[in-house]
Amino acid sequence: MFKRVANLVLPLVLIGIATGPTLKAENVNAIRAEIDALKNSYESRIKNLENRLSVMKAQPIKKQQPPKTKATSIRNVKNNSFNPSIGIVLNGKISDYSKATSEIAGFGVAHEGERGREGLAIGETELNFSANADNRFYGSMTAAIVREDGSDKIELEEAYVETLPGLGLPGGVRIKAGRAFWSLGYLNEIHAHSDDFSDRPLPYRVYLNKGYNDDGVQMSLVLPTDRYLEVGTGLFRGDDFPFGSSTSGRSAHSAFVRTGGDIGNNTSWRLGASALIGTTDGRKSNEDAVTFVGDSNLYAVDARVILKPSGNPKAKELILQGEYFRRDEDGQYSDTENSASNVNFNDTSAGFYAQAVLKTSPSWRIGARYSKLSPADVPSGLVGTSLDAAGHDPVTYSVMTDWTSSEYGRLRLQYNREEFATNDYDNQIILQYVVSLGAHGAHPF
Questions:
Q1: Is the pLDDT of residue 213 over 50?
Q2: Proportion of the chain above pLDDT 90, given as a percent
């Protein structure tokens, strides 16, 4: 094709030269020489192109393959804001005790408040679903699979909905309804597998059966102040310990206030006060041997301080934490195992714990905890029963060390020395693992 164009253009150039003004012979020869050089150049280039085209036609045409995707490539996932986050928590222990039993003198303790099984045992395995239903409501459900009386059971720990800012409530107002670990003290809102120790301190075991998660509704308000300040109140059915067998279905209520802040760049703190007040038609404990009917009011004060000497809590930090409880009861106790029935009771008991946990490196921590209870003076009708502490204050000393492989795995070794009756000690060694699979919500400060 290029040769045809050259052959067509060359005569036109010659015609133009011939018809133009008369030129000298030497000029005509120079122009003709330039034309011949241009013609030879084009012919050489055209020949090279024709040779390349012939080679390409001789080669077989390969079918184009679609690009391959590696198995480890990252896929673009659509926004999953309204899809549930699913998480599983695996919790296991091996425990060794020096005593066959471990009754807490002076208190009627429910099943969850008693110490765990000796030897190899699976703790609570949790299955959690949570998501935003829309821009107005958030929902969460946690089911625990536990081993009781030789069989596996599923217990519903939490199933609630919570308002989001999109609902249009006044600023700082939040409402939660359903079943949940409600705002009471510090540890009650936190699932036990996230604790700093393998077991809960004595006041939680005795007063709350490890944690209060009744059916109900709670409203809280974060006030528009320079320092964090939150207040709230709740109304509950009253079926869960320390109540039970509610007839009205709304026999317990709560109130709480908490505040906190920072001191410089290396210290954070939180203080709280709360109350859980209600009436029970029959609170049972110690395998239904002890029953209480009447008013039971629980008051708590909690404090927590986090020290970050280097300013980096992932490398090193010290957490100081403590809670104090007081329980006022006015009603009647009965102990069917000791033939004590309808004994009037109106007194106060108390308990507290204090603990310190030091992170020495990103993976290692050590901790110590002290728990103590002060039972009420029981009336003469209950002397000799499990509610009679005979002037003794139950106490527990605990030390632990744990290794964290990541935010999803932890291995802990703990030693407890419990004295629940005078000169009656129980030495305990507990080895625990906690592994989280999938999503798991953050816990409060």
A1: yes
A2: 56
Please spell the DSSP secondary structure of 199-223, one letter per residue.
S--HHHHHHSTT----EEEEEEEE-
- The set of residues, in sequence order, having a beta carbon less than 8 Å from that of 77 and lying 6+ positions away, is none
Residue 387 phi/psi, 5-degree rounding, is -85, -5
Smallest Cα–Cα separation from 257: which of 290, 283, 220, 291?
A: 220
pLDDT single digits (tens) 10-49: 554 444 544 554 556 667 777 777 787 777 777 777 877 7
Q: Copy the structure tokens of residue 25.
A: 């012979």
pTM listed for this prediction:
0.79
437/408 Cα distance (integer angstroms): 7
Average pLDDT estimate for 179-203:
95
Amino acid identity for residue 7 in this structure: N
Q: If you compute the radius of gyration of the chain from its CA atoms, what whole number of angstroms results? A: 39
Place of tokens 């009205």: 248
Q: How far apart are CA 389 and CA 395, in angstroms?
A: 12
415 CB-near residues (< 8 Å, 6+ apart): 398, 399, 400, 427, 428, 429, 430
Cβ–Cβ under 8 Å, residues 126 and 436: no
Q: pLDDT band at residue 59, thresholds of 50, 70 and 90? A: low
Q: Answer yes or no: are the C-beta atoms of 439 and 126 closer than 8 Å.
A: no
- Residues present in the chain in total: 445
Percentage above 70 pLDDT, the chain: 85
Average pLDDT, the chain: 85
Cβ atoms < 10 Å from Cβ of 231: 15
CA atoms 193, 196, 199, 200: torsion sign: negative
Structure tokens at 69: 């995707």
DSSP state of 105: T
Q: Could you give the 3-state DSSP secondary structure of residue 12?
A: helix
Mapped onto helix, strand or coil, the DSSP state of residue 273 is strand
